[in-house]
From TrEMBL:
It is a multi-pass membrane protein. Pfam families: BPD_transp_1 (PF00528), OppC_N (PF12911). One of its GO terms (biological process) is transmembrane transport. This is ABC transporter permease. Residues 120-318 form the ABC transmembrane type-1 domain. The chain crosses the membrane at residues 45-70, 120-147, 159-179, 191-212, 251-276, 296-318. It comes from Nonomuraea terrae. It is found in: Cell membrane. SUPFAM superfamilies: MetI-like.
Length: 330
């Protein structure tokens, strides 16, 4: 056993000035959001993914000025850039240069850079809004199933099982293929975008619904919910004031991971020819057209790279958010 330290003199005396200086300082607690942000700042990979996501959103929002500054109108043909004998772009690397940053398409000579930038807003718009639809439906039904339980939980659970077992891609192809030219006050690609958002969002909600249901089952057994019930709070008050605020973090994390899945789904439909009508540029549609010209790697690589970078950035950022909000990960 070690002997206690001999503290004497000035070290053993408390200084009144130091005590008074610290007496007026309030102890500040740190919220879950602040703690999560501190953890997220230490994750450089997630921050890099988030930075790419922000950059993609800015590109989609300001696509017109970007195209005007660095490219040409995405639907404009440039036959002077095409070799009449082969119908392939003139020059090396598909016509890449200062005027056409990523080259031009075969046959028609449309600017690939402009079409990729113009296609970004369609992919992000459908991905974001379809995720919003899925989150709303999944959150509402998941909270109802988890909070009330019993036969309500059984019915909603079986509905989730049916949707999860449904051949979504086959159904989406069949439904998107019969979309009329006009309906619901919309026409053309406006109607197709709305229908794609509905199809992707409506059939993707069971995954987030199960997560919300599981979290709600745990939350309804917590002390603060029991305290609210003992004070006479109604179910609506408990759901909106006690349960939903504690579901924001898992919903936000899963929504971030669901966006790239929906972007890939839209690209798949466009690749199969049942997405946005040409000549409106979409990344999946550009890949579909590029299949015929597999000898021109630039025509395939750049739209595929746009999809890859977008999906990877969202996944990295979503993984970082999940780790930041999960206390067991630290």
């Amino acid at each position: 056993m070690t002997a206690p330290l001999d503290v004497s003199g000035s070290a053993a005396e408390a200084h009144p000035e130091s005590v008074l200086a610290g007496a007026g300082k309030a102890i500040q607690g740190r919220s879950l959001t602040r703690i999560a942000w501190m953890r997220l700042r230490r994750d450089k990979v997630a921050l890099a993914g988030g930075g790419v996501v922000v950059l993609l959103i800015l590109v989609a929002i300001f696509s017109s000025p970007i195209i005007a500054a660095f490219g040409h109108p995405p639907l404009e043909f440039h036959q002077d850039q095409i070799d009449p004998a082969t119908l392939l772009p003139k020059g090396t690397f598909g016509g890449m240069g200062g005027e056409y940053l990523l080259g031009v398409e075969p046959v028609n000579g449309r600017d690939i850079f402009s079409r990729i930038v113009a296609g970004a807003w369609i992919s992000l718009l459908i991905g974001f809004l379809a995720t919003v639809v899925s989150v709303i439906i999944g959150t509402v039904l998941g909270v109802i199933a988890g909070y009330f339980g019993g036969w309500v939980d059984q019915v909603i659970g079986r509905i989730m099982d049916v949707f999860l077992a449904f051949p979504l891609l086959v159904f989406a192809i069949a439904l998107a293929g019969v979309i009329p030219d006009q309906g619901f006050g919309l026409e053309g690609n406006g109607l197709r975008i709305a229908m794609l958002i509905f199809i992707i969002g409506f059939f993707s909600w069971p995954s987030i619904g199960r997560i919300v249901r599981g979290q709600t089952l745990s939350l309804r057994e917590r002390e603060f919910v029991d305290a609210a019930k003992s004070l006479g709070a109604r179910n609506g008050y408990i759901i909106f004031r006690e349960v939903l605020p504690n579901l924001v973090a898992p919903i936000l994390v899963y929504a971030t991971l669901l966006i790239p899945t929906n972007i890939l789904f839209e690209a798949s439909l466009s690749f199969l020819g049942v997405g946005i009508n040409p000549p409106t540029p979409t990344w999946g549609g550009m890949l579909s057209e590029a299949v015929r010209f597999y000898t021109l790697p630039h025509f395939v690589i750049f739209p595929g790279l746009a999809i890859f970078i977008t999906v990877l950035a969202f996944n990295l950022f979503g993984d970082g958010l999940r780790d930041a909000f999960d206390p067991r990960a630290h």
